[in-house]
Amino acid sequence: MKFFKNRRKGFSSPAGKTEMIGSPKEKERFLYIDQFRGLIVVLMLVDHCSYYFNSIWQQIDPLDPLVDTWGQFAIRYVSYLCAPGFLMMFGAMAWWSYQRRLLKGTPDRIARWQLIKRGIFLIVLQMTWVNSSWGGFREFQPWHIGIIACIGISMILMTLIINMNWMIRLFIGLAILIIHPFLLKIPYDPEATLSRIIMQTFVDAGDFNKYPVLPWFALAILGSVMAKGWLETWKTDKIRIYASAGIAAIALLISIAVRMGRGFGNIFPYSDFGSYSFYFDQKYPPSLSMSLWFFAWVLLIISVFIVLGKVAPKLLVIFSLPGKVPLFFYGMHIAIMGVFVKRLGLFYREGGVLETLIGVAIMMVIMLPLCKWFYGVKIRSKNFIIRMI
Predict the structure, then answer these.
(1) DSSP 54
(2) Across the chain, what does the average pLDDT equal?
(3) Most confident among 19-23, 77-81, 366-370 (mean pLDDT)
(4) Are 4 and 238 contacting, i.e. CB atoms less than 8 angstroms apart?
(5) Residue 152 burial by CB count (10 A; 0-12/13-18/19+): exposed, middle or buried?
(6) Which of 58, 135, 163, 280 has the most other CB atoms within 10 Å of its CB?
(7) CA nearest to 10, candidates 306, 26, 311, 19
(8) What residue segments make up the domains of the chain, in order of their start?
(9) Rounded to whole angstroms, how far apart are CA atoms 108 and 322?
């Protein structure tokens, strides 16, 4: 079919890579993964603009964010894709970079150490930059684990299983997701420092950490399994699309079955099938139904991006650049809004949906040139910190 044939202005390799003919090869890149990561950070921007500009956050609980209007539901719910997408893409690219290093002759221990170093860097970045940036650097806030540190810890844990067969990794990832609801039943005193740190680091969500490692690490493992198909086994885009969509359909059906069972794998109750409450199962920590639901949506959106990359690539341009430097986008957009909105008090939680979307548009105008500049710096730099971002 003509739809699936390679393009020659920039040819698409069997693994979905795009390299410009006659240009130096900077790094192996997969356009649909860059574009999907770009979508993820843009959706994070939507959520964070809501956090800074939307007055609804003066009324609702982040751990139980039920809303009663379509607009508020939409700008909140789209962000639910972000953490599963971030962790799955991290798992996919961690596995790929490890495999590439081995093929280039890097010793196994060195290849694993590269992942460990990046994991440590992400944990330190969370403690030194990200936590304090939320308040505009008004005060130093190191003692909190967030999504970036969760990714860092997951990266370190990934080194324990990175070289295992994909079927074993699949089993481990699914086993963690199934066991996690039972671990949530472990009683602990949230006022006791040691038990709070242990439980909220790995199992539960609370003030110390909203992103417990185990369920998110499981999604990272599933991302590494999908990478085996996307980047190695499935040789054509047609196969990638059909295989991803098929797996997604199975995951969606299982997720719906779990949710409608109203028992194991659910945390929040719901009123009716299709209601706002049906979709708002818990994110902090993620329920089993939510993890399976958004695992499926990651695969479906990846499939759509592969299709759009063939038939209408210009539609995805806005995501390509942020997706090449997602960590930079994440850290900078929070810092900018933290300083100007939270610290200086400019329109802090004074608006609604419209003001949130205006904030998104303004921040995109700011962030896209910054991303272009930093990407140029990064591909030329040999500085350890810049290369890690």
Answers:
(1) B
(2) 89
(3) 366-370
(4) yes
(5) buried
(6) 280
(7) 19
(8) 2-388
(9) 31
